[in-house]
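Weekly structure sync, notes
Attendees: PL (lead), two postdocs, one rotation student
Agenda item 3: pending single-chain targets
PL asked that the sequence for the first pending target be pasted directly into the notes so everyone works from the same version. It is reproduced below exactly as submitted, 244 residues in total.
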Amino acid sequence: MSTPVTGRRPGLNLDHGSWELVWSHIHRVLVVNLGLAVTNAPLLLALGVVHRPWQYPAFFVLLSFGLGPSLAAAFHYLRRTTEDDRAPVADLFRGYRRLFVPALLGWAPWVLLVAVAATDMAVLRRTAPGPALVPLLVVVALVAASSGTVTMAALGEEPRISPRTLLTACYASVRRWWLGLLNLALLGITLVLVNQAPLLGLAVLPGCTLFVVLRNSDAMLTTVAPAPDLAVGHAHPDPVGAQA
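Predicted structure, written out during the meeting:
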């Protein structure tokens, strides 16, 4: 006699530890997403109102200065969750307040370098030296963007900034350029998806992306000699999505 089919589906059997891991990860992502949305509210509001932001470069470059401190605070919070899986939301905003000045000082030079390179590309692309100079300017912009991200990841651990910090971040970005490109690609895809679906994108994507970016940035920093003003105490030698 054949066994009757009842139509019941097997339940999802996860132990208590697995559920704790899932919910702690969700909590971490939601806190980071909330912090990014609150600290970058002026930029998000401007992007929602202005249909062609590239026509107002000076205004949006000024607003983009605020991205650095919010990234540093997010990276600081993600490191904090290695000690406490459910670190409170207040920890992120305390980190934002404490890191604001050094993060702004470390982020602004890279933003200005990207802005200058982009302006030069727009001016030179239709001139005679354009074919020779534009690729070089693209490389400069990519290295600057990657270096800015690595600088903010380092500040999430050590809240100090100096010229040596900037040079070390730049060297790490050049030495492991494939991880820098991976970080920029992930951030770019996240920005596009958030632009297409703002509420859903902000609720889900940034925290997951920044977790991967932090792991890759730590792996990039391990390739350089330890410096007093650029110490990453919780570095992860193996990046997410790429191997050294």
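Discussion points:
- The two ends are 59 Å apart (CA to CA).
- Residues 89-124 form the longest helix (36 residues).
Action: rotation student to compare against the earlier draft before next sync.
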